[in-house]
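We treat protein structure as text, and this decision shapes the records that our systems exchange. We quote a single record here, exactly as it is kept in our systems:
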Amino acid sequence: MRLLLTPGLLWFSAVGCGLLAGLYFAFSAFIMSSLGRIDQASGIAAMNAINVTIVRSLFMPIFLGTTLASLILVVMALLRRDEPGAAMILAGGVLYVVGMTGVTMACNVPLNDALAAVDPSTHEAATLWSRYLKDWTLWNHVRTVASTGACMFFIAAIAAR
């Protein structure tokens, strides 16, 4: 079983990290700047719609599953430090859990919650939206880099094994 568990978790995590890195890259590269170019109320409404829809989509099982698989891989790497690829597994798992999941929960989700609570047509919304576009995108860049880096570490670990 162990012979299949580690490779299976590594492949699942590499693919999950890659999928999420691509999604986050799209938001960083053009989605957020596009939302910032339309009127404030429409931009806020669109982002709020995305935030509602994404948690009801296939995104969530991939997001949560990749986080769980990465956590399991971290534990396995710590327990089997001398095995080929263990350092890369550890690096990928920690980078993903801290740089993607941790940043999402500590930074992006609270920003999303604040955006959902504001009336899109108010002056308060204008101030929030301006700050949201900058702050959310900054933290999304971190998630993009973390997911990409974790994917690369997991692929390197697969190659090392």
